[in-house]
Write a structure and sequence with these properties.
There is one protein chain. The protein has one domain. It contains no helices and 6 strands. Strand 5 and strand 6 form a beta hairpin. It starts with a strand and ends in a 9-residue tail after the last strand.
């Protein structure tokens, strides 16, 4: 499971209206009828780039997140599904 968030650098500005998040699974995380095994999970470290992109690898896809200039909106810029399990032959 995973949530990407943007927080103010200055802790005195830490308020609900200054924290933005994006959930991999949306409302499915709160739905007790959805087994944990059916939720998407972050499976690797999260990386950033010099232009503010945040990259996450999950058990299903690679994603690039970004936030608007004010940090009030976190969104997925792109995602790409990848193969799961299996062994790649040389």
């Amino acid at each position: 499971m995973g949530i990407i968030g943007v927080l103010p650098r200055n802790v005195t500005k830490m308020r609900d209206d200054r924290v933005a998040v994006a959930s991999l699974n949306g409302d499915r995380c709160q739905d007790a009828s959805v087994p944990t095994s059916e939720l998407e999970h972050v499976t690797n470290n999260i990386a950033t780039d010099e232009s503010g992109g945040v990259y996450a690898v999950t058990d299903q896809r690679m994603l690039r997140y970004s936030a608007d200039a004010g940090g009030s909106d976190v969104r997925i810029d792109w995602d790409h599904a990848h193969l799961q399990g299996g062994v790649v032959e040389p």
